[in-house]
Specification:
Layout: H1 3-18, H2 23-33, E1 46-57, E2 60-71, E3 75-79, H3 86-92, E4 103-111, E5 114-115, H4 123-129, E6 130-133, H5 144-154, H6 161-174, H7 178-181, H8 194-206, E7 212-216, H9 224-237, E8 242-246, H10 250-256, E9 259-264, E10 267-273, H11 274-279, H12 284-290
Parallel strand pairs: 3-8, 3-9, 6-7, 7-8
Antiparallel strand pairs: 1-2, 1-4, 4-5, 9-10
Length: 295
Protein backbone atom coordinates (compact mmCIF):
# COMPACT_ATOMS: atom_id res chain seq x y z
CA UNK A 1 0.00 0.00 0.00
CA UNK A 2 1.40 3.43 -0.88
CA UNK A 3 1.96 6.15 1.74
CA UNK A 4 -1.14 8.18 0.78
CA UNK A 5 -3.36 5.12 0.94
CA UNK A 6 -1.89 4.15 4.31
CA UNK A 7 -2.52 7.67 5.61
CA UNK A 8 -6.11 7.60 4.36
CA UNK A 9 -6.65 4.21 6.01
CA UNK A 10 -5.32 5.45 9.35
CA UNK A 11 -7.41 8.64 9.13
CA UNK A 12 -10.48 6.57 8.30
CA UNK A 13 -9.94 4.35 11.33
CA UNK A 14 -9.46 7.40 13.56
CA UNK A 15 -12.60 9.08 12.17
CA UNK A 16 -14.62 5.90 12.67
CA UNK A 17 -13.32 5.67 16.21
CA UNK A 18 -14.37 9.25 16.95
CA UNK A 19 -17.85 8.52 15.54
CA UNK A 20 -18.23 5.38 17.64
CA UNK A 21 -20.49 5.09 20.73
CA UNK A 22 -17.39 5.58 22.86
CA UNK A 23 -16.94 9.10 21.45
CA UNK A 24 -18.15 10.76 24.66
CA UNK A 25 -15.67 8.74 26.68
CA UNK A 26 -12.91 9.65 24.25
CA UNK A 27 -13.72 13.36 24.46
CA UNK A 28 -13.64 13.17 28.26
CA UNK A 29 -10.29 11.43 28.06
CA UNK A 30 -8.92 14.09 25.71
CA UNK A 31 -10.11 16.75 28.16
CA UNK A 32 -8.43 15.03 31.10
CA UNK A 33 -5.21 14.61 29.14
CA UNK A 34 -5.12 18.28 28.10
CA UNK A 35 -1.87 19.80 29.31
CA UNK A 36 -1.22 22.78 27.05
CA UNK A 37 -2.71 24.74 24.19
CA UNK A 38 -2.03 23.36 20.73
CA UNK A 39 -0.73 25.94 18.28
CA UNK A 40 1.24 29.16 18.48
CA UNK A 41 -0.08 31.35 21.28
CA UNK A 42 2.34 34.19 20.58
CA UNK A 43 2.23 36.87 17.91
CA UNK A 44 5.27 38.44 16.20
CA UNK A 45 3.76 41.89 16.80
CA UNK A 46 1.52 41.64 19.86
CA UNK A 47 -0.85 44.38 20.97
CA UNK A 48 -2.14 42.31 23.90
CA UNK A 49 -0.16 39.61 25.72
CA UNK A 50 -1.98 37.26 28.11
CA UNK A 51 -0.10 34.73 30.21
CA UNK A 52 -1.51 32.16 32.65
CA UNK A 53 -4.84 33.96 32.98
CA UNK A 54 -7.29 32.43 35.46
CA UNK A 55 -10.77 33.72 36.28
CA UNK A 56 -12.80 32.69 39.31
CA UNK A 57 -16.44 33.43 40.05
CA UNK A 58 -16.42 32.65 43.74
CA UNK A 59 -15.32 29.01 43.87
CA UNK A 60 -15.95 28.37 40.17
CA UNK A 61 -12.79 28.24 38.08
CA UNK A 62 -14.14 29.73 34.83
CA UNK A 63 -10.88 30.34 32.92
CA UNK A 64 -7.90 28.05 33.45
CA UNK A 65 -4.31 29.07 32.67
CA UNK A 66 -4.99 30.74 29.33
CA UNK A 67 -2.05 32.28 27.48
CA UNK A 68 -2.65 34.10 24.19
CA UNK A 69 -1.39 37.08 22.20
CA UNK A 70 -3.53 39.34 20.04
CA UNK A 71 -1.53 40.98 17.28
CA UNK A 72 -1.62 44.47 15.83
CA UNK A 73 -4.19 44.94 13.07
CA UNK A 74 -5.51 41.41 13.21
CA UNK A 75 -8.94 39.97 13.87
CA UNK A 76 -8.91 37.01 16.23
CA UNK A 77 -12.08 34.96 16.64
CA UNK A 78 -12.84 33.26 19.95
CA UNK A 79 -15.07 30.24 19.38
CA UNK A 80 -16.43 27.37 21.43
CA UNK A 81 -19.65 25.94 22.88
CA UNK A 82 -21.85 27.95 25.24
CA UNK A 83 -20.30 28.30 28.67
CA UNK A 84 -16.76 27.58 27.48
CA UNK A 85 -15.38 30.88 28.81
CA UNK A 86 -14.78 32.81 25.61
CA UNK A 87 -16.86 35.84 26.64
CA UNK A 88 -15.40 35.76 30.15
CA UNK A 89 -11.91 35.85 28.65
CA UNK A 90 -12.87 38.67 26.28
CA UNK A 91 -14.12 40.79 29.21
CA UNK A 92 -10.78 40.32 30.96
CA UNK A 93 -9.11 42.32 28.21
CA UNK A 94 -10.61 45.63 29.37
CA UNK A 95 -11.44 44.63 32.96
CA UNK A 96 -15.18 44.49 32.44
CA UNK A 97 -15.19 41.57 34.86
CA UNK A 98 -14.33 44.07 37.61
CA UNK A 99 -18.03 44.95 37.69
CA UNK A 100 -19.02 41.38 38.69
CA UNK A 101 -19.16 40.74 42.44
CA UNK A 102 -16.98 37.81 43.47
CA UNK A 103 -14.97 37.72 40.24
CA UNK A 104 -11.21 37.34 40.62
CA UNK A 105 -8.60 37.41 37.85
CA UNK A 106 -5.01 36.18 38.17
CA UNK A 107 -2.14 36.01 35.71
CA UNK A 108 -0.77 38.70 33.42
CA UNK A 109 -2.52 40.75 30.74
CA UNK A 110 -0.47 43.47 29.07
CA UNK A 111 -1.56 46.12 26.60
CA UNK A 112 1.44 47.51 24.72
CA UNK A 113 3.62 46.18 27.54
CA UNK A 114 1.62 47.70 30.40
CA UNK A 115 -0.01 45.45 32.98
CA UNK A 116 -3.71 46.36 32.81
CA UNK A 117 -4.32 44.78 36.24
CA UNK A 118 -1.76 47.03 37.92
CA UNK A 119 -3.35 48.37 41.11
CA UNK A 120 -2.66 51.97 40.17
CA UNK A 121 -4.17 51.81 36.70
CA UNK A 122 -7.32 53.85 36.00
CA UNK A 123 -9.86 51.64 34.22
CA UNK A 124 -11.70 54.58 32.61
CA UNK A 125 -8.97 55.41 30.06
CA UNK A 126 -8.28 51.67 29.71
CA UNK A 127 -11.84 51.09 28.53
CA UNK A 128 -11.40 53.91 26.03
CA UNK A 129 -8.23 52.24 24.73
CA UNK A 130 -9.94 48.84 24.65
CA UNK A 131 -13.52 49.45 23.57
CA UNK A 132 -16.39 46.96 23.74
CA UNK A 133 -19.28 46.27 21.37
CA UNK A 134 -21.90 44.10 23.03
CA UNK A 135 -24.19 41.35 21.78
CA UNK A 136 -27.29 43.53 21.83
CA UNK A 137 -27.07 47.08 20.44
CA UNK A 138 -27.20 49.50 23.35
CA UNK A 139 -27.33 53.10 22.10
CA UNK A 140 -27.66 55.79 24.74
CA UNK A 141 -31.10 57.43 25.10
CA UNK A 142 -29.70 60.42 23.27
CA UNK A 143 -29.57 61.72 19.71
CA UNK A 144 -27.43 59.99 17.09
CA UNK A 145 -25.00 62.91 17.30
CA UNK A 146 -24.77 62.81 21.10
CA UNK A 147 -24.24 59.04 21.11
CA UNK A 148 -21.00 59.53 19.21
CA UNK A 149 -20.01 62.87 20.75
CA UNK A 150 -20.42 61.73 24.37
CA UNK A 151 -17.12 59.83 24.64
CA UNK A 152 -14.90 62.51 23.08
CA UNK A 153 -16.54 65.09 25.36
CA UNK A 154 -15.88 63.27 28.63
CA UNK A 155 -12.34 62.30 27.59
CA UNK A 156 -11.50 65.83 26.44
CA UNK A 157 -10.62 64.80 22.88
CA UNK A 158 -12.12 67.88 21.21
CA UNK A 159 -11.09 71.47 21.89
CA UNK A 160 -13.91 73.07 19.92
CA UNK A 161 -17.33 72.36 18.49
CA UNK A 162 -15.80 72.09 15.03
CA UNK A 163 -13.35 69.41 16.22
CA UNK A 164 -16.18 67.51 17.90
CA UNK A 165 -18.28 67.63 14.73
CA UNK A 166 -15.30 66.32 12.76
CA UNK A 167 -14.88 63.40 15.18
CA UNK A 168 -18.58 62.56 14.97
CA UNK A 169 -18.59 62.60 11.18
CA UNK A 170 -15.36 60.63 10.78
CA UNK A 171 -16.53 58.01 13.31
CA UNK A 172 -19.88 57.59 11.56
CA UNK A 173 -18.09 57.33 8.21
CA UNK A 174 -15.74 54.62 9.51
CA UNK A 175 -18.75 52.76 10.84
CA UNK A 176 -20.39 52.95 7.43
CA UNK A 177 -23.34 54.89 8.80
CA UNK A 178 -22.76 58.51 7.82
CA UNK A 179 -24.61 58.50 4.51
CA UNK A 180 -27.64 56.89 6.17
CA UNK A 181 -27.95 59.33 9.09
CA UNK A 182 -26.20 62.58 8.12
CA UNK A 183 -29.55 64.38 7.72
CA UNK A 184 -31.03 62.90 10.91
CA UNK A 185 -28.33 63.44 13.54
CA UNK A 186 -30.82 64.96 15.97
CA UNK A 187 -33.04 61.87 15.94
CA UNK A 188 -32.79 59.39 18.83
CA UNK A 189 -30.24 56.62 18.36
CA UNK A 190 -32.93 54.18 19.44
CA UNK A 191 -34.99 55.10 16.36
CA UNK A 192 -32.53 53.31 14.07
CA UNK A 193 -32.86 49.72 12.90
CA UNK A 194 -31.03 46.99 14.81
CA UNK A 195 -28.16 46.86 12.33
CA UNK A 196 -27.85 50.64 12.27
CA UNK A 197 -27.88 50.75 16.08
CA UNK A 198 -25.00 48.27 16.20
CA UNK A 199 -23.00 50.36 13.72
CA UNK A 200 -23.82 53.42 15.84
CA UNK A 201 -22.37 51.60 18.85
CA UNK A 202 -19.25 50.83 16.80
CA UNK A 203 -19.01 54.51 15.83
CA UNK A 204 -19.37 55.43 19.51
CA UNK A 205 -16.54 53.04 20.34
CA UNK A 206 -14.10 54.29 17.71
CA UNK A 207 -14.87 57.96 18.47
CA UNK A 208 -12.56 57.80 21.51
CA UNK A 209 -9.63 56.53 19.41
CA UNK A 210 -9.22 53.02 20.85
CA UNK A 211 -6.33 50.70 20.09
CA UNK A 212 -8.40 47.54 20.47
CA UNK A 213 -12.07 46.75 19.80
CA UNK A 214 -13.69 43.82 21.59
CA UNK A 215 -16.87 42.40 20.06
CA UNK A 216 -19.06 39.97 21.99
CA UNK A 217 -21.30 38.27 19.41
CA UNK A 218 -22.06 41.60 17.69
CA UNK A 219 -24.26 40.04 14.99
CA UNK A 220 -26.26 37.49 16.98
CA UNK A 221 -29.37 39.72 17.07
CA UNK A 222 -29.09 40.94 13.47
CA UNK A 223 -30.57 39.80 10.17
CA UNK A 224 -28.29 38.48 7.37
CA UNK A 225 -28.11 41.81 5.51
CA UNK A 226 -27.14 43.75 8.65
CA UNK A 227 -24.69 40.99 9.58
CA UNK A 228 -22.98 41.26 6.18
CA UNK A 229 -22.53 45.02 6.69
CA UNK A 230 -20.98 44.50 10.13
CA UNK A 231 -18.63 41.83 8.76
CA UNK A 232 -17.52 44.13 5.94
CA UNK A 233 -16.97 46.87 8.50
CA UNK A 234 -14.83 44.56 10.68
CA UNK A 235 -12.58 43.84 7.70
CA UNK A 236 -12.18 47.57 7.03
CA UNK A 237 -11.55 48.46 10.69
CA UNK A 238 -8.74 45.91 10.91
CA UNK A 239 -6.51 48.35 9.04
CA UNK A 240 -6.70 50.73 12.02
CA UNK A 241 -7.47 48.57 15.06
CA UNK A 242 -6.84 45.24 16.72
CA UNK A 243 -10.11 43.30 16.99
CA UNK A 244 -11.11 40.31 19.12
CA UNK A 245 -14.54 38.87 18.37
CA UNK A 246 -16.56 36.22 20.17
CA UNK A 247 -18.89 34.40 17.82
CA UNK A 248 -21.04 31.27 17.79
CA UNK A 249 -21.03 31.34 13.99
CA UNK A 250 -18.11 29.38 12.64
CA UNK A 251 -18.89 30.69 9.16
CA UNK A 252 -18.53 34.23 10.49
CA UNK A 253 -15.25 33.39 12.21
CA UNK A 254 -13.94 31.94 8.95
CA UNK A 255 -14.99 35.06 7.01
CA UNK A 256 -13.69 37.83 9.27
CA UNK A 257 -10.69 36.54 11.23
CA UNK A 258 -7.05 35.80 10.55
CA UNK A 259 -6.55 33.73 13.70
CA UNK A 260 -8.99 31.55 15.63
CA UNK A 261 -8.86 30.38 19.25
CA UNK A 262 -11.01 27.45 20.37
CA UNK A 263 -12.14 27.34 24.02
CA UNK A 264 -13.59 24.34 25.85
CA UNK A 265 -14.63 24.24 29.52
CA UNK A 266 -12.53 27.26 30.43
CA UNK A 267 -9.40 26.12 28.62
CA UNK A 268 -7.82 27.37 25.42
CA UNK A 269 -7.56 24.13 23.49
CA UNK A 270 -6.18 25.27 20.16
CA UNK A 271 -5.16 28.45 18.38
CA UNK A 272 -3.85 29.03 14.88
CA UNK A 273 -4.42 30.58 11.50
CA UNK A 274 -8.14 30.51 10.80
CA UNK A 275 -7.77 28.48 7.59
CA UNK A 276 -5.72 25.85 9.41
CA UNK A 277 -8.05 25.58 12.40
CA UNK A 278 -11.11 25.10 10.19
CA UNK A 279 -9.60 22.80 7.57
CA UNK A 280 -7.03 20.87 9.59
CA UNK A 281 -7.72 21.11 13.35
CA UNK A 282 -5.04 19.46 15.44
CA UNK A 283 -7.01 18.60 18.57
CA UNK A 284 -9.95 16.14 18.57
CA UNK A 285 -12.09 18.54 20.63
CA UNK A 286 -11.60 21.27 18.03
CA UNK A 287 -12.44 18.88 15.22
CA UNK A 288 -15.58 17.64 16.97
CA UNK A 289 -16.82 21.19 17.55
CA UNK A 290 -16.12 22.37 14.02
CA UNK A 291 -17.73 19.31 12.45
CA UNK A 292 -20.85 19.77 14.59
CA UNK A 293 -20.53 16.68 16.81
CA UNK A 294 -21.25 18.85 19.83
CA UNK A 295 -21.73 22.50 20.73
Amino acid sequence: MNTIAESQTVQGKESAKMRSPEKGTLIAAHQREFTRTIGEISSPNPRIMCRDVNVYYGEKHAIQNVSLDVGHNEVIALIGPSGCGKSTFLRCLNRMNDTIVGCRVTGSIRLDGQDIYDGGLDVVPLRAQVGMVFQKPNPFPKSIYENVAYGPKIHGLANSKAELEEIVESSLRRAGLWDEVKDDLAKPGTSLSGGQQQRLCIARTIAVSPEVILMDEPCSALDPIATAKIEQLIDELRELYTIAIVTHSMQQAARVSQRTAYFHLGRLIEVGDTAQVFTNPRHPLTEDYITGRFG
